[in-house]
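Review box. Two proteins, two foldings.
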Amino acid sequence: MITFEQAYNLVMQNTFSLKHERVELTAATGRILAEDIYSDMDMPPFNKSAMDGYACHKEDLKDELEVIETIPAGKEPQKIINKGQCAKIMTGAMVPDGADCVIMVEYIQIIAKNKIRFSGQSTNINICFKGEDVKTGDLLINKGTLLKPAHIAIMASAGITAPLVSKQPGIGIISTGNELVEPFQTPSPWQIRNSNAYQLAAQVGTAGAVSKYYGIASDDENDTYNIIIKALNENDMVLLTGGVSMGDYDYVPAALKRAGIEIIFNSIAVQPGKPTMFGKKDKKFIFGLPGNPVSSFIQFEMFVKPLIYKMMAHEYSPVTVALPLEDDYRRNNATRKALLPVIITDKGTVAPVQYHGSAHIHAYIKADGIIYIPIGLFEIKKGELVNVRQI
């Protein structure tokens, strides 16, 4: 049995990057950028009015001004602003030559046809100057970035219509055990519905990968071996749930050995999730996750998700916040690192979710995050700061 930190390092050290592909800009959200994006123009590309008003020379504000043209957005100014002149201008329109400020329309007094006077005491410039946001050649987005809607807007502004992104890993999912039936089936008194596979498929999707479900492998070594081989041949990674312990009917270890999988570790000093296995064959990875839903959920978040992102050349960094504990926390056994589900209260404190062990997945519906309780620590006092890893 190895520590959580040792297991995490082993997973990250054994990764490799996938190839790249170009996708339509509208399909790029959630993908990992595989190229740096540079600006091909200044932004704004011209001196732009920040509001509706009148473009003029600031030194002329004390005088009456003649309105010589109206400039809507998307139209090039036709005249130069000379002394005593101005142009009515709309938000986003190009500021004409000769003007160095835009007077807000709220501070204008119309005194005659095409004649106005500034009625305020002072004014801001109210101009967005050419290149003040971005200059031609500026780096806009680094490769390795997880693309979000704001990144899509930036790429569109730079004329990028088909960004280069990392290919999405294919993740095969296998459940094991004669005690399982599919959700559409009615279980016998000794059976349960398979929730792990569907939970993992959802988690795979949120991590930007593509899942393929291979069904339930029965408690038979040949059946387990055949389904593992098929999944390995068709995917970059395989996730198994259940059958990784040392029970009489846990055939996964034997099937993995037969399939030529190099087992890197098969037990971690964490709670829940001790019987977690990680192995590889050539450039294929395989995780054996515990059969209990909470354990498999947590171990995916801790190990599988960072590896998926690493394969796409993205450094996954979960959001973590330090918050005070709502009440005293105590545990009887501190030989393993505890991964404890918590909620963030309305008071800004953290309270452990009440759950009945690693099979109680319903408790995670309410969980906002996970806190780590180190090996050897039995107690955390009320009010002590704990780091909450949000999920």
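Next protein.
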Amino acid sequence: MTDATDWLGLKGKVCAITGAGGGIGRAVALAMVRVGARVVLLDRDAATCALTQAAVRALGADAPCIACDVSDPASVTEAAALAGPVDVLVNNAGLLRPGPIATLPLAEWNQLLSVNLTGYFLCAQAFGAKMIERRSGALVHIASIASRFPQGFSGAYSVSKAGVVMLSQQLALEWGPSGIRSNVVSPGLVRTPMSEAFYQAPGVAEKRASIVPLGRVAVPDDIADVVVYLASARAGYVNGEDICTDGGFGRVLMSLVPRPGFEG
């Protein structure tokens, strides 16, 4: 049980975040600090990781930046050793690259999977080992609505995100008896540094916002709030779930069907 000053039960907990230099990773780090957690920042890009570290310090906290290439088993193992035991792992590092399946080179397919899926597996193993020993911990994996709806001409992206959902469910099944929960957050449209180029094209931001029932594209904080909940004691009986965080975008299909007399 948590007390009134620590409603989420995250005060003093240690949370490791991969891809911490990115938009969602940075938002998660700051959200965790705001609720009293200690964060460990993992990223292969030292410059963007340092920016997140500076943002954490601006909140009056501190956080180590650890170089970590999630596609490299040795790098992940070293990062986990440097971080020490953690209570929460947020698997967030990811790639998005264009490419039609018909002509996609095998090397590009493998590279995206090595980060978006195998990297999650490697980090779960490395950081989860101490969780299993202590019989306590929470894993939160960032997937995408692309795990449910194929995103065309994006190479292995949708396949990788669908794999993340199943990986999380398998972890929930195998590690649940050891007191470890594993859940997924699947964002819809989110404006992040990785997607910002899309929004710079004329009309794209307005068109994207117009197809979301809530009338806006998400910002990283929208996703971070759900991550914090799933990591917290308040989600203590939530395990193996995939929380779609898309503002209702995934529910617009039937509204695209012409149906005279049923207009709003």
